[in-house]
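## Example record

The block below lists the input lines for one assembly entry, exactly as stored, with component labels intact.
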Amino acid sequence: MMATFLALLTQILHAALILAAAPLVVGGVRWVKARLLGRRGPHPLQPLRDLLKLLRKRPVLADGSSVVTRATPYVALAATLLAALLVPGFAQGMALAPVADLILIAGLLALARMALALAGHDAGTAFGGLGAAREMTFAAFAEPALLASVLVLAVLAGSSNLDAIAALFREGSLGIRVSLLFVLLALMAVALAENARVPVDNPATHLELTMVHEAMLLDASGRHLALWEAQAALKLTVWLALLAAIFLPFGAAPVGAGPIAWVVGAVLWAAKMALLAVALAVFETSIAKMRVFRVPEFLGAALLLALLAAALVFITTGLA
Amino acid sequence: MLTLLGLGLLALAVLAGLGAAGLGRRLVPLGAAAVAAVLGAVAMATLALGPVEEAALALGPPWGPALVALDALSAWFLLVLAVVALPAALFAAATGPSSRAEAAAFPLFLAAMVLVLLAADAFTLLLGFEAMSLASWALVAARHPSGRGRRAARLYFGFAAFSGLCLIAGFALLSAPGMGFSEMRAAPPEGWRGTLALVLILLGAGSKAGLLPFHLWLPLAHPAAATPVSALMSGAMVKIALYVLVRALFDLAGAAQPGWWGAPLVVLGAATALWGAIRANVETDIKAILACSTLENVGLITLALGLALVFRGADLAPLAALALSAALLHALVHAGFKGLLFLVAGAVAEQAGSRDPDRLGGLIHRMPWVAGLAMLGAASAAALPPFSGFASEWLVLQALIQSWRVAELPVQLLSAAALVTAGMALALAAAAMLRFVGLVFLGRPRTPRAAGALDVTGLMRAALVVAGAVCAALALLAAPALGLAGGIVTGLLGEGAAPPIAGLDLMLGEAGARYAPWAVTALLAGLALALWYGLHRKGAPEPRRSPAWDCGFLPPPPDLPFGDPLTQPSAAGAAQPIRRALGGLALAQREAHHPAAPGSATPARLRVEARDHGFVALLWPLGRLRRLAGHQAERLRGLPLSAYLALALGTLVLLLALLAWGAVA
Amino acid sequence: MTGPGDIAYDVAHLLGGAMLLVGFVMLGQRRIGALIAALAAQGVLLALAAFWQGHVQAAPQLYLTGLIALLAKGIAIPLVLHRLAGELPPPLRTEAPGRMGAGLVLGVGLVGLAMLVVVPATTGAGALARVDLSMALSILLLGALMMVTRRSALAHVAGLLTIENGLILAAVGVAGMPLVVELSAGGLVLVVALIAGVFARQMRERFASLDPGVLDRHRGEGR
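Predicted structure tokens for the full assembly:
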């Protein structure tokens, strides 16, 4: 009874924490990028202010759009929220941990992606369809790379349950694994593509022919746009939390460890997220955006890397 | 039970007679729908209560009575058949057959498929199989007296004949001890005999199911038939072929076959899945998109079956149960959503007058029922949680991930490659479904005909709703449905094996991974509703309508109320990124770019010709070979009389020698 | 016996894996400049691997091997190649697009093949040696693949050096290999000879590029 209550409590705390982190992560990355480029940059809380302003505005619907435009933002944000609830943050063994399957998380993100692509098609504009087709093409490479990474993690941890993987890695009995290095690189490439970050897509662009993610949102406005912006921010946070849970697992508190361990875990989690966000900003400022048709190569390389990691992990586990 | 099924078959025969006589245009399909409902009920009852014993019919071939039985495996596939047949027959009743041949062949097609499932001896099974091929060919050919459809039918006939021949040879090898299934089970083939049987069955059943490299006919023949027939062919007929595969490789060939038997299935399955998914993204006929997606799903099922064989060979019964359950569940789920999607496509063709996405668009405004159900089916086909496709594909992926437990490096490497291929196929399937829904139902109408389409009503709507209800029910009830297949899993894999379920969840015992459809559905719905409520609680401003912004395009002129259709993505345009990145894997492509002359107002044109590699690599050489053989045969006509006599004598001597050799051996 | 979790194994494994990764980077890299940088990185990693093995096995001759690798492969050869690349006209500094994806897929296939060969063939050896050997063979095959798929002479040199890196990695990883010094020295001679060869070839290419017949032969390269 007590255990259930604690699990539920941590789950709620985790939800609050990750929701609070989402706008900060986006704003923080923007701020650090601006600083690195020698600009002052907007306040890190600017995304939150934008969101609140957009929520108050009256949405404008394109003439050809249907109920899809009005419903998909809710579906996408709900799916991303559920994924956020499944990824372990400061604590492990939360209420939803038994169903925190990596394939389910990938599926939920795919659901959000599909909702976004449908919204892109709905207004019947050239750019919306173009962005949707490109987004799905990238996914065709990102998804198998993610699955191959899941395979490696599952071989090491015995299960594709993210909570189990994170708990095992926290104990640190695995040593340094080359395969994990490869998986890290592959997952980072997938994360960049999924979140429309720089070498794949430019989150700040509105140049029609190069944009992918923004192209699908051209005709969204008001609260719909706010929901989409929130979804994008939350998705980035989910991915960073996922990377942190797998590759920086130290300090996460098991649910039964008590409030002090939770606080320590939360502080460490915030530090990890900040570290990853800064790393992302540094990476984005130091690299140029790719041509759209180079992206499949980039993601294909990630896919092969993950496959290579699988091969390596097979022989090392087979021999040890 | 068997009596009930026998009555059903009889009823189908009567209906076929009525159809041939041109009577009861509505009655024949409605009767077929009733029979399909009975089939479904019988299948569920058999799965729940236990198998029906073998029975001998009073009629049969000269050497003995025909045997029929209904065990769990047959009953499961009977359920698969019923899931498609019921809405398809309702839809057929709504549209009515186009000719008497079609009206007669439709019940026969159903009856033949039931016969394959009921058969308990090789002869009856093959009889049913050939009748199924013939009836479905007739259904394709009856609609197309000439032209491309006729050519598709001819191609289909060729492949069906090849598949039939291979199956006959394969079952001849298996039935050395006797024609009855129980005799075959008692003495499974060994050594080269077993290997040869595997190859022949794989060729025979595989070419009927559309496995590479014998997939060429499927994207041509399935769309060429009438909509309910397309649904049956894509949703059920390929499953019957897979049933034959399972029956022969898992059941009749015995449990002691080596694990490498699974390897060709894994390879072919993964390749077919990717191939079909790529082609589904470039087709420009909505029914062909769905047929190619069938290829993808057949590939996934075959992949899972192959894994089950590998695991069985490695004595990993729980994993074999996982893989087999994945294949069975996916067969059922695919029947659900593919039936629905084909009926949706048929309804679009019927109401909006075209199957070309470039002549459709914006149908969600005029056809909300069809559009909603299309999205349900597409979400299932795209394997999005919490829809039905996700449950079964989650099992397939888990089986692939768990295959590292087979402690052999080649198996591990193979399954890692298969995992990546399957993952890519899944993502591409989602892309194909997005393209289907986005081009047909969203956006603006591309033709006046599409702008004036009407929603489905009456029987047609009922057919779609039935299919949609099945699809939705399977999403939530995946685990209980799989629980019905427990008898198959224990029957084929031994007492220790059971489907990976725990209550309403799918769960892997030792690995601990878990998928809870109810919880995911409830959480998603709860979160979405909470968001909606949260934003609308304080009287959110009502949206306003205005022309699409689209980066500053002008609003449409009054003479083009929906705007220029060319400013929307076309079927080719939406396909372009995937075609460019991956199309070369499956298609031989030629692009010709004709830019507009400087200063002229004509649009630039891009011509793309894409042809399946299979045509170039398999079919055309075969055609050349046939012509060559024809020329050689022509030369025989010029022989002198003595040469003819020598030929006849030579044949006779050869036959006698064969006989003598057989007697000595 | 060393295995995962043991620091000696982990570091050696990590260095070998990193070399393999760099091998893939080279295989997928179009720009000659970046290719040479990757080659230098691989040389440095090889030197580190040799140092580490020298430390673990307490074998001083491996330090010498590492030093040679560091000076020659990590610094000297990349510098020379870099200068050569700088003299190329800009269009020749990048490889033709396309074909990279297929090359990478083939590379992964070759790694799988290497594992399938090495793992059964080395039954009885330690886990470290087996993993190391399979990685070394993979790197070697990747180098050979690079020589097959690339057109540029400099890429060929890089491929050959990768082959040699793989060989030395294999030699370094196996305990008590007395020939290592000689091997690396021999490799060095080989490389020096090769660089001379490239030099000659480069010059020939310059002159030949005036010849329309040769241009015709090179036509597929520009696209």
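Chain A touches chain B through 86 residues (CB under 8 Å). Residues 90 and 265 of chain A are 5 Å apart (CA to CA).
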